[in-house]
Design brief:
- This protein has 320 residues and is of the alpha/beta class.
- The chain folds into two domains: 184 residues, 3-Layer(aba) Sandwich (Rossmann fold); 114 residues, Rossmann fold.
- 42% of the residues lie in helices and 19% in strands.
- It has a seven-stranded mixed beta sheet, sandwiched between helices.
- The longest helix is centred in the middle third of the chain and has 22 residues.
- Bound molecules: adenosine-5'-diphosphate.
């Protein structure tokens, strides 16, 4: 019976646990023996690779993070450790790998495939939604809902106190989380790395709005913009003349129970990944575009600039 393993690499996301559950169940359904690799590529190198049964994945579908943990691995960047990883997989008879991670993880496994012939399917998993070849990455919906909850709570206190609130969202150089969160919370200001901004352009408008009776502002800013949330908050106080607070959500955005969408997407991504491997695909990333799954080569996914959806940008044009 052919053997297949799964691992999580890079930043964890909500949705990895449902993916692991479906991996085990769908593998067994397809006469593959499933293995779990703990601690990402570190676990491949250290032979932390274990056969899995239904019992290993029961009760995890609703949990954030990943039961098999994730890791970054400096050693995996060295050919000698990748050779060790291959020897470990050989010792179990495993010749297929499902990798949940971001583009760094895919670059690593692509090298591994070229050197060893171990076939892989990559599943884009990052809350940043910054992988060029796919519209959706696992974990994004849960992160958006966490941010949404925070913004709804902040709005309550902002409106009670006549304040501006500036919330900093994650996303590295990608403004997706910020853009969608600003739109879905009716923010007054949305600052993202992809769009140049000039706060001066808002001075008159915001002051006028206060005169007209507005008693709070919500601003959502990406961690990747030039100014910090605190600096934007200071601008509200010093220039606009309204008391202001900055909130940096940080790692709260990564956790939480996966939403229905992320659970379903986890199931669908994994099913496509295993189907692809069974069909003989050796080195593909599972992408989701225009509501359909497709298999892409690593080059189509990794070496292209990520572009924000112009339609979303148009919707938000008055807040940035
Ligand atoms: P992400 O997958 O979220 O982009 P990283 O960029 O941190 O996260 O990559 C995760 C892991 O993938 C790294 O710790 C390393 O083990 C492996 N990796 C990344 N780039 C390479 C590479 N060029 N060669 C080999 N392994 C790599």
């Amino acid at each position: 019976m052919s053997k297949i393993a799964i691992l999580c690499s890079g930043g964890d996301v909500s949705g990895m646990n449902p993916a692991i559950k479906q991996f085990v169940e769908y593998s067994i359904e397809n006469a593959l023996t499933p293995y779990l690799v703990y601690d990402g590529y570190e676990g491949l190198i250290d032979n932390n690779i274990h056969p899995a049964s239904y019992a290993d994945v029961s009760g995890i579908i609703n949990r954030g993070g990943t039961k098999i943990r994730s890791a970054r691995s400096m050693r995996f960047k060295e050919p000698s450790f990748r050779a060790q990883a291959k020897a470990n997989l050989d010792s179990h008879g495993i010749d297929k790998l499902v990798v949940l991670g971001g583009d760094g993880s895919f670059r690593g496994v692509e090298k591994f495939y070229k050197e060893t012939g171990i076939a892989f399917s990559g599943i884009p998993s990052t809350i940043d939604n910054d992988i060029a070849g796919t519209d959706y990455c696992l974990g994004v919906d849960t992160a958006l809902n966490i941010i949404q909850g925070a913004l709804d709570a902040i709005r309550d206190t902002a409106s009670s106190f006549k304040r501006a609130f500036v919330l900093e969202a994650m996303g590295r150089d990608c403004g997706y989380l910020t853009l969608v969160s600003a739109l879905t919370s009716g923010a007054e200001l949305c600052l993202i790395p992809e769009v140049k901004y000039d706060l001066k352009a808002y001075e008159r408008l915001f002051k006028q709005q206060i005169e007209d009776g507005r008693n709070y502002f919500i601003a959502v800013v990406s961690e990747g913009v030039d100014q910090s949330a605190q600096e934007i908050s200071d601008w509200f106080e010093d220039v606009i003349g309204i008391e202001s607070r900055a909130t940096v959500l940080g790692h709260i955005q990564r956790g939480g129970n996966p939403t229905s969408r992320d659970r379903l997407m986890a199931y669908r991504f994994v099913t496509e990944a295993i189907d692809g491997l069974i069909a003989g695909r050796k080195d593909s990333v599972i992408c989701y575009n225009n509501s359909r799954f497709n298999y892409k080569s690593i080059d189509d996914v990794v070496n292209k600039p990520n572009v924000l959806d112009p339609e979303l940008l148009r919707l938000a044009k008055n807040m940035m």
